Amino acid sequence: MSSDAYDYEALGLIAGLEIHQQLDTETKLFCESPTDLREPEESDRTITRFLHPTKSELGELDDAALEESRVDREFEYLAYDSTCLVEEDDEPPTEVDGEALDVAMQIASLLDMEIVDQLHVMRKLVIDGSNTSGFQRSMLLGQEGEIQTSEGPVSIVDLLLEEESAQRVEEYDGGVRYSLDRLGIPLVEIGTGPDIRSPEQAKEAAKRIGMLLRSTGTVKRGLGTIRQDVNVSIEEGARVEIKGVQALDQIDEIVRLEVGRQSELVDIAEELQARDASVGDTQDVTTVFEDTDSGVIGGALGDGGTVTAVPLYGFDGLVGREIQPDRRLGTELSDHAKRNGAGGIFHTDELPAYGVTDEEVAALRDAVDAGDDDAVAIVAADPETADLAIEAAAERAETAIEGVPEETRDATDEGTTRYLRPLPGAARMYPETDVPPVEPDPSEIDEPELLTEKVDRYQEVFDLDSGLAEQVAYGRRMPLFEEAVDRGIDPTFAASVLESTVTELRRDDVAVENIADAHFLAVFDLVADDELAKEGVNDVLTVLAEQPDLTAEAAIEEAGLGGVDDEEVREIIAGVVERNADQVAEEGMGAFSGLMGECMAELRGKADGDTVSDVLREEIGKRS
Amino acid sequence: MNPGDRVRVERGGTTNEGVVLPSSTSDHIVLKLDGGYNIGIDREAASVDVLETDVHDIDDDGEPDDGAVSEIEFGDELPTISLISTGGTIASTVDYRTGAVTAQFTAEDVLRAVPELAGRANYRGRVVANILSENMEPTIWQELATAVYEEIEAGADGVVVMHGTDTMQYSAAALSFMLNTPVPIVFTGSQRSADRPSSDNVMNAVSAVEAAKADCAEVLLCMHASASDDRCALHRGTRVRKNHTSRRDAFETIGNKPLATIEYETARDDGADGDAADDAITFNREYAARGETDLALSDDLNPAVELVKFTPGMDPAAWDYLDDADGVIIEGTGLGHIHTELIPRVKELVDNGTVVAMTSQCLEGRVCDRVYDTGRDLLDAGIVEAGDTLPGTAKVKLMWALANVGNPTEAMGRSLAGELTEESQPWQ
C-alpha cells in the first residue's frame, strides 16, 4: 500500500486544524500567579476534591463527558508556592489578564480576523478533574480570518482565549492526581475551516499558523506548549478528530495515513457488503482452550478468566488486512477491546500463532459455527472484561460493514492513530458570572514583525548569513537577541553565542536552560567592555549554567578567567616564546602559528585572540 | 428584537446567528451562538434580521411559593428531615442557554440539585425566604424560628436550614437563643455556587443531613473543615464566625476546636440507606443529646440594638445616633477598651437606660475591664462585660435578652446558649 498513490481530490479529502498554543505571559489568565511549570516534588500542599456534574433540564451531559466521569472519582491537586487560591477554586477569578488579551488580539490580527466587540467569558463543562472548578473558562475573541497557503486560502473560523487545564500527574487507586502549576496559563485555540485538501496543505497551514504565533514573541516553547488536532474525512469516509499531534512535521504524514485508513476501510466495507457479511452473537468458548499451550490464553484461564468469541461471517481475510502501517482491521477491533480493559484480541486471520494450534482454531470455528469464509475474534480475560471487550469488538466489526466510524483518535509516534473515544457532543457552556465582559480595543493592537520578515532583516541589516538568521529568528532566544543588539552588541557575535555556542554547550550536557537572559546580557556587556575575551564565553556560560546564582563577574572568577591584565598577558606570552627560543631563532615569524596555539592554551580565554596575536608578533619580533 | 429571538446579525462583514440574551445592554446585543459561546455585538454598527421569535422562553418564572411545604418519602423506617430554605445557592440550577442561576426550593428541587441526599431520610421541604443573606432581617429570624418550631412539632427528626453564608452565623445565633430543641438544627450553605461541578454544596448538604440525623440536639453550623472535600466541621451556632471571604473552610469556631467533625466519605456511605452515620462524627466536647430538652420557642426580639466598633481616630459624633438604641454592643480594643474621651458618652447612654455590653475586636479571648484605668472607668460608667461572647453573637443575644429576660444587663454576663464560656482553656 503506497500512500502516495492516493488521489486526494478524487477521494474528496477534507481536513481542518485546531491549534492550541500556550501564551508566555507574566501571569495567568485569571490570577496573578506566574505561568511557570514546576516539578511535582516541589509541591508544598495538596487538596482533594470531588466533582459533581449536575444535570438540569437543559444541561444534559453528553456521552463523551459521562464516559470521562466515573462516579466518586477523587481528584488530588498539587499546589505550589507559585499557585494561589484561584487555581484551587477557593477564590473568584480576577478580570481577564491584559497581557494575554493583547497577545491574543495580536494573533487574531495576524490571522486577519475580526475581533469580537464584547468578549464574554464562558464556562465550558469539563468533569475529568483537569479543572478544579469543573469547567474551563473560555472566550470567543476572533472570527472569520484567513491564511494563505500555496494551494489556496484556508479560513480561520474562530480564535478562543481560554485557560489551560491542570497537568495530569498520575492515576492512583480511586483517583487522579493533577498539578496546579499549568492550570490557568493563557491558551489560544485556533480553528481552521474545513478547507484543507491535501496532506501537504495541512502541514503548510499548521506551519504558517505556528510561524504567526511565534512572531508575537509571547508564546510558550517546548514540549506540550503547542498541541495540534487534525480533523480528517474523505467523501465516503467519516469525520475523525485526531488529538495530540505534537510535531508539526508529522501532520502531512498523519493526514496521509488517515486517508489511507479511511479508504481501506471503505474498500473493506464494500467487500463485506458484497459478501453479505454479518456479525454473529458473542459466546463463551473457554472449553476450546482448556488445554491450550498459548501463554496469553492459558495465563488468563489460570487466573479464573474465560475466553469469549464472536463469529464474523464473511470476514475471512479482511480482519488481517492492513489499513495503516502495522495496523489491521483487527487492530481496530483490538483498540475497542482494550478500551474495555482487555489486553487485545486474537482473530483467525492471524491464527494459528501465539501458541494457538490448528486444532484449536478448527475447534473454535466449530464452536461458533464459522466456516472457511468467516473469521472469529476472541478475547481472553477475567469473565466480566472478556464479555465487555468481545461485545465492544463485535460492535466495531458491525460498523466495519457500514464503513468508517466517526470518532476521536489518538496520534501515535509513528503517525498512525488509534481509537480514543466517541466524538464530543456540543460543549456545555454557560456564562462565567464572576468575570465581567471585556470590550477590547483593536486599534491598540501592535502587529509584530513576522519571523519571515525578521529573517530577511537580520540578513540585510545585521549581515547574518541566512542559516544563522533563520536559527535566531525562529529560535527561542530571539527576543534576547534583539535586546542584545539594541544595547549595541555585535549582532553576529550575539547570534553565534545564542545559537551556536548554546547548541555546543548543550551537546556537552551543560544545562543551558539554567542560564538566565540577564546572564547572557551581562556576558555580552563584559565582552563589549573588554572584561572578558570572546574565547572565554563558553567557560563562563558553563559556570553560570552550573551555578545560576552567581553574577557574570563572579562566574569569570570561578572559571579562572579573572584578573589578567595586559602585563600578565605579555609575561605569559614572553614565557612561551622563551621556552621556544630555539624554534623562534630558527623560523622567525614562521613559528607564529605554532606558538599562537600554545599561548591561547595557556591563557585559556583570559585574553582575546587579537591581543594575543599582536603581543606574540611583538615578542617574536624582538628575537628575530 | 427581544430576548429569546433567533437573529442574524451583520457587523463589519462578519455574520453571526444566535439567540438574543437578556444580558443585552443598550450598547451591545448579546448573542448565544450555536457553538455555545456568547458574544456582545456593537448595537449601532450591527444590522439585525429576526429569524424566529421566542425560540426560547427566557422569562424567569422560578419564584418560589413562600410557606409551601413539600414532602418526599423514601421509606417508613427512615428519619424525617426538614429542609428549610432562606435563599442562597446551595440548591440552584443553571439554564445553560442563558446562564441564569435559579434557586430551587421544594424538596424535589433540592433532591434534583443534590441527588446524593436521596434515600438518607424522608424530606419535608419548606421555604421561609428567598433572599441574599446580606439582606437578612430580625423579622425573618422570627419567621425562621417559628418554621423550625413547627417542623419539629410536626415530627421532624432533624432540621437543615439552607442559608447564604454571609450572615449565616447571625441566624444560627438567633435560633440558638430563640429555640429550645430536642433535635438537631443544622445550618449549611455553600461558598461555591451550586451551578458548578466543584460546588461544596453536595458535601455540605449531605453532611448537614447526617448531622441532623445524629444525636447532638443543638443549633449547629455545618461547613467544610478544610480546603479539601474530606470532612465538615460542626460549629456551635453561637461560637462560629465566617473568617475568610471565599474559601470553603471559611467558618471557624472561635476560641476552641469545632464541636465536632464529620468524615464525609464515611457519612456519605454509612448514612446512604437512612442509618445514622455515627462512626463518621467525632465530637470534641460535651453536647446536648437528642431528646434531653423539651421543644420551646421564645421568638420575641427587640431589634433596637447596635453593634459599634471603636477604632483610633473615629469621630465621637459617630455614636450620636445611639440615642435611640435600647442596647449597644461595643467592639472595643484589647481587653475591652475605647478612647477615654468616649467614656462619658457611654455613661450617658447607660444613664438613659441603654444596656451597653463590651466585647473585643480581638475575637479570641475574653474581655476584662478591671486591669487598666480605662476599663475600670468603663465599668464605673455602667457597661457589662460580655466575657468571650463574639461581637455579632452579642448583638443577637442582646436583641433577644431585651425582649425575654428580666435583667438583660446581668444576662449579658452569663451564658444562655453556649455563647460565653466559663473559663478560658488553651486549645491550639
UniProtKB/TrEMBL annotation, chain A:
GO annotation terms (biological process): glutaminyl-tRNAGln biosynthesis via transamidation; translation
Enzyme category, top tier: ligase
A GO MF term: transferase activity
Keywords from the UniProt entry: ATP-binding, Ligase, Nucleotide-binding, Protein biosynthesis, Transferase
Gene3D superfamilies: 1.10.10.410, GAD-like domain, GatB domain, N-terminal subdomain
InterPro entries with a match to the protein in the record: Asn/Gln-tRNA_amidoTrfase_suB/E, Asn/Gln-tRNA_Trfase_suB/E_cat, Asn/Gln_amidotransferase, Asn/Gln_tRNA_amidoTrase-B-like, GAD-like_sf, GAD_dom, GatB_C_1, GatB_Yqey_C_2
E.C. number(s) listed in UniProt: 6.3.5.-
Protein role: Allows the formation of correctly charged Gln-tRNA(Gln) through the transamidation of misacylated Glu-tRNA(Gln) in organisms which lack glutaminyl-tRNA synthetase. The reaction takes place in the presence of glutamine and ATP through an activated gamma-phospho-Glu-tRNA(Gln). The GatDE system is specific for glutamate and does not act on aspartate.
Protein name listed in UniProt: Glutamyl-tRNA(Gln) amidotransferase subunit E
Protein species of origin: Halonotius aquaticus
Phylogenetic placement of the source organism: Archaea, Methanobacteriati, Methanobacteriota, Stenosarchaea group, Halobacteria
The encoding gene: gatE
TrEMBL record, chain B:
EC number(s) on file: 6.3.5.-
Biased composition (Basic and acidic residues): 1-11
HAMAP family with a match to the protein in the record: GatD
GO molecular function per UniProt: asparaginase activity; ATP binding; glutaminyl-tRNA synthase (glutamine-hydrolyzing) activity; transferase activity
Primary role: Allows the formation of correctly charged Gln-tRNA(Gln) through the transamidation of misacylated Glu-tRNA(Gln) in organisms which lack glutaminyl-tRNA synthetase. The reaction takes place in the presence of glutamine and ATP through an activated gamma-phospho-Glu-tRNA(Gln). The GatDE system is specific for glutamate and does not act on aspartate.
UniProt xrefs under Pfam families: Asparaginase, Asparaginase_C, GatD_N
Record-annotated GatD N-terminal domain positions: 1-51
Similarity comment: family membership: Belongs to the asparaginase 1 family. GatD subfamily.
CDD domains documented for this protein: GatD (cd08962)
Name of the featured protein: Glutamyl-tRNA(Gln) amidotransferase subunit D
Quaternary organization: Heterodimer of GatD and GatE.
Annotated region (Disordered), positions in chain: 1-20
Phylogenetic classification of the source organism: Archaea, Methanobacteriati, Methanobacteriota, Stenosarchaea group, Halobacteria
Domain L-asparaginase N-terminal: 81-264
Any single GO BP term: amino acid metabolic process
Keywords, comma-separated and alphabetical: ATP-binding, Ligase, Nucleotide-binding, Protein biosynthesis, Transferase
Highest taxon of source: Archaea
Chemical reaction(s) catalysed: L-glutamyl-tRNA(Gln) + L-glutamine + ATP + H2O = L-glutaminyl-tRNA(Gln) + L-glutamate + ADP + phosphate + H(+)
Asparaginase/glutaminase C-terminal domain boundaries: 305-410
Active site residues according to the UniProt entry: 89, 165-166, 242
Matches recorded under NCBIfam families: asnASE_I (TIGR00519), gatD_arch (TIGR02153), PRK04183.1 (NF003217)
